[in-house]
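User: New here, any thoughts?
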Amino acid sequence: MFKLWATIVKDFRVLVRDGVGLALMFLMPIVLVFVVTDIQNSTFKMINKNKLPILVCNRDTGESGIQLLETINKIGMFKVSNLPKNQNEKTIADAMKERDALLSIIIPANFTLKVKAKSKSVAGKALTSFGLQADSVQKNVGNVDPLTLYYNPVLQESLRLSVKGGLQSALQLVESRETLRSLYFSINEKQLPASLEDEMLNNKATINEIPVSKNGSLSAPNAAQHNVPAWTIFAMFFVIMSLGGSVIREKVSGSFIRLKTLPTNYLVGLLSKQITYVIVTIIQAVVIFSLGIWVFPLIGLPGLNLPSDVAGLFVVTLVCGWCAVSYAILVGVFAETHQQSNGFGAISIVILAAVGGLMVPTFTMDTSMKTFANFSPMHWCLQAYYGLFLEGGRLRDVLGNLIPLIIITLVFQLITFLGLKRKNLI
């Protein structure tokens, strides 16, 4: 026991002297957490509060074009600015750059005429199907000329599809209003009252949004709940920059050989490193979670809400840290130089993070990538944390994620042991 304690003290002293490693393990992930959370939170605000700037060139002179503009304004997604009617593609592109707008639409000149013609045709067909006498139904009136949507290529496809869906809803509402007016006039031979029109068009069922949780909590997760656990995992795995280098230094300096002449075993040294760096990963989690809880609200970011099962959070952090440390030792044992350890370690961590869902959610991946995600330890770490932070679960609810993570960790340990045996280091 004394040998283990002495080795742990030695490893802590070596770690404290490694300024670059400490910066990579603490400073870099803290900066990442702040930057990524702020960016994602700004994106949420842009969609929900700030509104997307959009330029509208209305070439139509009828009321349908005006109604479409009013409907677009009511959607709540857009900050509408009008352009002169004589704009072409070049002048619209210039106007988008000048006004820093990501979107622009052109309402065609015959928009009202086409909407009215189509509405009368649809109303006439409906009356005929009801067995009522209708005016002569126009044949082949054609569809309404499409709107032209210009967008900045930097706009992500998911956001662009949301914009397109909003504009299609606005178009559908304008066409439905005109069809309803045509039907009412054909039956009653008078204009549809505005109050009745509003009641018929705006009488929509509402949608209650309730996040699915395991403990009955209904609080919606925020950007901090998503990002803080993810980048805490990233920080844990970056102990490879210090721990991998420590293992290589002992190999290069001959410490392995000298240990063989002492009444001890290098496995004691490996156990010491694991205990030391697992404690470091726990400290990383405590520091980053504390920043999320107390510092984020001070700088305008959403605060981190800890899960109710604090004991479960500690166990998950412990298992995640053990896995990260096991992977770092594995790379250190097989790498021959610091350059190999740092280069392979950094690149492999980024790849594991990308495949594991830290950078892109796994539900957006195709089937083959989802299969690869199951082999990334970061995937199981993230799912365990999400089960606690986002779903309000307890330790028993995330055991299905911890078991694969423990299996992967034991595989790392076994490969490390076989590597040390093959190199005659133990």
